[in-house]
Design a protein that fits this description.
- With 389 residues, the chain is of the alpha/beta class.
- Helix content is 34%, strand content 17%.
- The protein contains 13 helices and 16 strands.
- It has helices spanning 33-47, 73-82, 124-131, 150-158, 166-180, 199-208, 216-223, 239-248, 288-299, 320-331, 341-350, 364-370, 376-383; strands at residues 13-17, 24-25, 28-29, 51-55, 86-90, 106-110, 136-139, 162-164, 186-190, 211-214, 256-260, 270-273, 282-286, 303-307, 335-339, 358-360.
- Helix 6 links the parallel strand 9 and strand 10 (211-214).
- The chain is elongated and about 65 Å long.
- The chain starts with 12 loop residues before the first strand and ends in a 6-residue tail after the last helix.
- 46% of the residues are buried.
Length: 389
């Protein structure tokens, strides 16, 4: 693939696709990590004299309908604090025949691409409109590389030149090393609510890992193989598949867990063995014996790969399992790789982001890539690399 450093961008209109999909609550950004990871490419374009336009999505609004709750305005305000250049948020940019970019010392941020009809369906008409905005398209949103959307995939077919940015290049270099030759033992941790959405990932990671630790609703489905799980979130239709995985690979199933009768920020949890959960109880986290057992495994790891907190970590009473992983990473000498928005949020909650060896901006793309699966955006970028004159 071409990367931005292979191309002369001076006086060129550079359309930079970033992943600025950060968690926002009550108009307050909860984690700035993805924005921070995007800054090197932004600053590179400025330094090299390109006219910069930024594209990104935020959340899942209804296409074709503006919704202020999904506006990029809070992100623009944060960027203004980080970059000493005028930054303007632009609406209705698709109706402008020739977006006026040639203003020195100005960055344009185009409003949430998911407001545009056809974005998530990879509409060719929309892709062409994006392509007309630039001389060079730079794909730096690794976290969206597994999606065929107009602003990530379709535009590459029509832009005069397409390349990857600094973050994208860094992601594939580091993650490629993990795939090819990880230091062992390799311990993978996968949390999440539904095993159905991550079953293929679990299957592939189980093959590559010395131990695969599962948490959240995924863990509940494994527990339910031999036990009743009360009101807990689990998927009965995946019990047999989970059983086959457990029997074939090293996937430790919790022996005890924290349960509650009502999930809330203020409600307490209490510990029960997994074979003694009542019909009115709900699993919210690992129990102490499970935590001790998994901690011993993790501190001996040479590589730790983590995607997804293992309990309802947002609530103080349900985050002991996630806290255990954090402590184990700090205690171990492992090369630690973390990916996924909720996992990054957990790192920041415990204040250890700077102690992680590498934080990937990706969630789904991170997991797909480390399995060795081809990402659509990478495939089309390789196919179109010869478009440059």
């Amino acid at each position: 693939m071409l990367n931005i450093k292979n191309i002369n961008i001076f006086n060129k209109k550079v359309l930079l696709r970033l992943d600025l999909n950060v968690p926002i609550k009550n108009k307050v950004i909860m984690s700035y990590k993805r924005i921070e990871l995007s800054l090197p490419t932004i600053k590179y374009v400025i330094k090299k004299g390109g006219y910069l336009i930024i594209l990104s999505h935020l959340g899942r609004p209804i296409e074709g309908k503006y919704d202020k709750n999904f506006s990029l305005l809070p992100i623009v305000k944060y960027l203004r604090k980080k970059i000493n250049i005028s930054i303007k948020l632009v609406n209705n940019y698709l109706d402008i025949d020739n977006l006026k970019l040639k203003y020195k010392n100005k960055i344009l941020v185009l409003e949430n691409v998911r407001f545009n009809i056809g974005e998530t369906k990879n509409c060719n008409i929309l892709s062409k409109k994006y392509a007309k905005l630039c001389d060079i398209f730079v794909m730096d949103a690794f976290a969206t590389a597994h999606r065929k959307h107009s602003s990530t995939y379709g535009i590459i077919k029509y832009a005069p030149i397409s390349c990857i940015g600094i973050l994208f290049l860094k992601e594939i270099k580091i993650l490629s090393k993990l795939i090819s030759n990880p230091c062992r033992p390799l311990i993978s941790i996968v949390g999440g609510s539904k095993i159905s959405t991550k079953f293929n990932i679990l299957n592939n990671l189980a093959k590559k890992s010395d131990t695969l630790i599962v948490g959240g609703g995924i863990s509940n489905t494994f527990i339910s193989i031999d036990n009743e799980v009360g009101k807990s979130l689990y998927e009965p239709s995946y019990i047999n598949k989970a059983k086959k995985l457990r029997n074939k690979y090293n996937i430790p199933v919790p022996i005890d867990c924290r349960v509650t009768k009502k999930i809330s920020k203020s409600s307490n949890s209490y510990i029960k063995n997994v074979n003694n959960i009542s019909s009115n109880e709900e699993i919210v986290d690992f129990g102490n014996e499970t935590i001790k057992y998994l901690y011993k495994i993790l501190v001996k790891a040479k590589t730790i790969l983590w995607n997804g907190p293992v309990g309802i970590f947002e609530y103080p009473n349900y985050r002991k399992g996630t806290e255990m992983i954090v402590k184990a990473i700090l205690k171990s000498n492992a090369f630690s790789i973390v990916g996924g928005g909720d996992t990054i949020l957990a790192l920041e909650l415990f204040g250890i982001s700077d102690k992680i060896s590498y934080i990937s901006s990706g969630g789904g793309s991170f997991l797909e890539f480390i399995q060795g699966n081809k990402l659509p955006v990478i495939s089309i970028l390789k196919k179109n690399k010869n478009k440059i004159n």
